[in-house]
Design a protein that fits this description.
There is one protein chain. By secondary structure, the protein is of the alpha/beta class. Helix content is 38%, strand content 18%. The protein is built from 13 helices and 11 strands. The chain has helices at residues 2-23, 36-49, 62-69, 89-97, 128-135, 175-189, 216-225, 235-240, 257-261, 285-293, 296-299, 315-327, 333-336, and strands at residues 28-31, 56-59, 80-83, 103-118, 138-141, 144-147, 167-169, 209-211, 230-234, 245-247, 268-276. The strands form 2 sheets. Strands 1, 2, 3, 4, 7, 8, 9, 10 and 11 form a 9-stranded mixed sheet that branches. Strands 5-6 form a two-stranded antiparallel sheet. The longest helix is centred in the first third of the chain and has 22 residues, at 2-23. The radius of gyration is 22 Å and the shape is globular. The protein starts with a helix and ends with a helix.
């Protein structure tokens, strides 16, 4: 009787595995809301031009996506995660601890982080330091660090309007938030001896900063409703909404495709997706999707994703991306250091 029961259980397990394999023919993707429009475009094209179902993409934020991606291997875990900043060493180490040991990193291009408001206002250009003073939880005053006392913009610079500081930005799970903290808060804090040798990137929590959620479109909508607020989101969303929004120059540099691709714009960052190669046998179709994403048609000169606001890789960079994909190049801790 026990032998019969064991045989039944084994047969059920085999059928379960078969079912999972069939279901996993549909690629499971998570990650960055900033990369989402580009990944979604490729996914729709992939579904329309191949015999495979359109991949399922969930916008979880870069950090949230990497957490899900690194949870392990197999059913219930993503095949691919999108990120609007590079994976951190600690994230790769967590992946490895959970058995996700074979990952290929795919660079897809660059993007800037816009600081923008309703175009019902006059353009207000800022410096990295002024943004820091508006956003940091603690700022230097008379040689000491104190809770941020600035409530209105003209308290930071008297050329600014007498207008309450309200900044709607991404949450802590967002790669845009991570990149903004690294490129603005950490950089600005380094100029103040009061912070010592430690990196400082704490965001104030007194109401001046408002978490706008993972969906950058929701931040855009908020700015059209609250014309006193500023927003922080990917440059592509500024381009798509330039009929209702106006962006700020930062350190005197206008956010454009040219200044972002050259990294002259101080808040420019690179974007990626990551492939879980250990799903390659179960979901080989993910490589066909990845190849389409990294194709000349999408990322080459005049590629389709440029029309959505993606700053495309250089020809040499794209050649390297395509070679890394072909080789299934394995990401290492040393690559990220």
């Amino acid at each position: 009787m026990n032998r019969i029961l064991k045989t039944t259980v084994l047969a059920a397990a085999v059928m379960s595995v078969v079912g999972v394999a069939q279901a996993r023919e549909q690629i499971n993707i998570v990650g960055s809301s900033t990369v989402y429009p580009f990944a979604s475009f490729v996914a729709e094209e992939f579904g329309a031009t191949t015999n495979y179902p359109t991949p399922v993409i969930e916008g979880t934020g870069s950090g949230g996506g990497l957490r899900l991606f690194c949870n392990g291997v197999g059913a219930g875990t993503p095949d691919i995660t999108n990120a609007s900043r590079r994976m951190h060493v600690g994230e790769l180490e967590r992946c490895i601890e959970n058995g996700v040991t074979d990952i290929t990193e795919v660079y897809i291009g660059s993007d800037g982080i816009a600081f923008a408001q309703s175009n019902q206002n006059e353009q207000m250009d800022v410096t990295v330091d002024q943004l820091f003073l508006a956003i940091a939880a603690q700022v230097p005053v008379d040689g000491e660090l104190v809770p941020n006392p600035y409530t209105n913009w003209n308290q930071i610079d008297d050329s600014f309007p007498d207008r309450e500081i309200v900044i709607v930005g991404p949450p802590t799970t967002s790669g845009t938030r991570d990149a903004f903290e690294e490129l603005v808060l950490v950089v600005a804090a380094e100029e103040y001896e009061e912070y010592g040798d430690e990196e400082y990137s704490d965001v104030r929590n007194d109401g001046a900063w408002v978490d706008g959620g993972e969906n950058d479109n929701l931040i855009v909508q908020r700015l059209t409703q609250d014309t006193t607020a500023f927003g922080i989101f990917g440059f592509s969303f500024l381009e798509e909404n330039n009929d209702v929004l106006v962006g700020s120059n930062i350190n005197g540099v206008e956010p454009t495709q040219e200044t972002i691709s050259s990294f002259e714009y101080p808040v420019a960052r690179s974007m990626f997706f990551y492939l879980k190669n250990q799903h390659g046998e179960e979901v080989p179709v993910m490589y066909e999707y990845a190849d389409m994403f990294a194709s000349d048609m999408m990322l080459g000169e005049g590629g389709l994703l440029a029309d959505l606001g993606l700053i495309l890789p250089t020809a040499d960079a794209l050649d390297q991306v395509q070679q890394d994909l072909e080789d299934r190049k394995q990401l290492t801790v040393e690559d990220l250091q």
